[in-house]
Amino acid sequence: MRRLINADKGLVLLATAPHQGLKTLTTVMFNTADRFTRDFSGVEDVQKPYEVIENITTTKYDSAKGETPMKVLPDVFFKEPKVLLIRDMVDLESWKLCCEEVNNDRLIITTVRSADAVSAIINVLSQGVDATLFANAITSVITQRLVRRLCEDCKEEVEVTNPQIIQAFKLDPKHPKWFVKHIHEPVAEGERDYYVPCTDCRDIGYKGRVAVFDVLEINDEIRQIIAADVDLASKEAALRKKAAESGQEGYWVDGKRLVREGVTDYDEMRRVMAENQTRRPTPQKRPAS
Ligand SMILES: [Zn+2]
To answer: pLDDT tens per residue, the chain (289 residues)?
Structure first.
C-alpha cells in the first residue's frame, strides 16, 4: 500500500462500505505517504471538513452555494501539485479533469463508498464517468473492512479438526489450534454455574476493531475490461472472474493471518464478509448522455 500511495502518477481509489472507517483509511494512507518531497494539494467541501493532514494545502469549495470541486480544481492544477487528494468527487466534470491530469504525471487520490475493490470501480463507472478515460487513469483500488478484535482476557484456544480449514489457514498440522470468542457452556439443570463473565469486554468476547484490506492493482487486462463497451453487470462479472483467476483472495489474505494469529476469529471474519456482501449497492444504469 505504501508503494501504491507513493507512485509517481495514477489514480488511486480508497473505498469502504458505510461505517467501515473511510476517514481513518484516508488519514492513515496519507500519513504513510511521502508528503515532504512531493507537492501535495487537497480539495474539500467546506460543508464536510476533515481533520487537517500535515503538509497538505487544502483549497475549499462550498456545496451549500451550489459549488462543485470544479470551482477550484483548474486553479489547483495550475499550481502543478504532484499529488491531489479530493475526497468527494461529486460530478462528471471533476472526474474528467482529474483523469486527464494523471497524464501530466500527477497522482490523484479519491474516495468511494464501496464494499470491495471491484464494486468501487463499478460505482465510479455507474456515475457516468467515461470508461476509456477512467481505465487509462486508474492504477489501484484499496478497500477496507473492520473486524472486531478478540478480547485478550477471555479468548479461548481450541483445536481445529477440519483438514481443509487447517490447510487453508496454514495452521500447524501437528497442533492445529486457533483462538475463538469465549464459550459459555450451559450447565445441566440443578447444577451450579461457576462461569464468571469477563469484565474487560463486558462478556461480548470482542474488544476494539482492526482493519482488513483488499488491494487491487490495475494491470492491462483489467484496464481492457474497464474500458470495454459492455453493460456494467457484464463488466462487473468479468472483473470478478479475472480477480478470481489471478487467485485474488481479497480480504481473506489479511483475515486468515489475523485468525491464525488469534487477533480475531473465523466466525467474526465470516460475519463481516457476509454482512457487507448484502450491503453492496447495486450498480445503476449509465445515464444517457
Ligand atoms: Zn473478555
So the answer is: 888 888 889 999 999 988 888 888 888 888 877 777 788 899 999 998 877 777 788 999 999 999 999 999 999 999 999 999 998 888 999 999 999 999 999 999 999 999 889 999 999 999 999 999 999 999 999 999 999 999 999 999 999 999 999 999 999 999 999 999 998 888 888 888 888 899 999 999 999 999 999 889 999 999 999 999 999 999 999 999 998 887 778 899 999 999 999 999 999 999 998 876 644 444 444 444 4
Domain ranges of the chain: 2-146+209-253
173 Cα: distance to centroid of ligand 1 (angstroms): 28
| Ligand 1 centre distance from Cα of residue 106 (Å) | 48
Inter-CA distances, 289 with 23, 77, 128, 282, Å: 33, 27, 8, 21
Task: Give the Å distance between the CA of 265 and the centre of ligand 1.
Answer: 14
Strands 10-16, 138-150: pairing is parallel
Q: Which CATH superfamily is domain 2-146+209-253 in?
A: P-loop containing nucleotide triphosphate hydrolases (3.40.50.300)
Residue 113, burial from CB neighbour count under 10 angstroms (0-12, 13-18, 19+)? middle
CA of 169 to the centre of ligand 1 (A): 24
Distance from residue 207's CA to the centre of ligand 1 (Å): 7
Q: Ligand 1 centroid to 238 CA: how many Å?
A: 44
Determine the distance separating the centroid of ligand 1 and the alpha carbon of 155, expressed in angstroms: 7
- How far away, in angstroms, is 150 Cα from ligand 1 center? 8
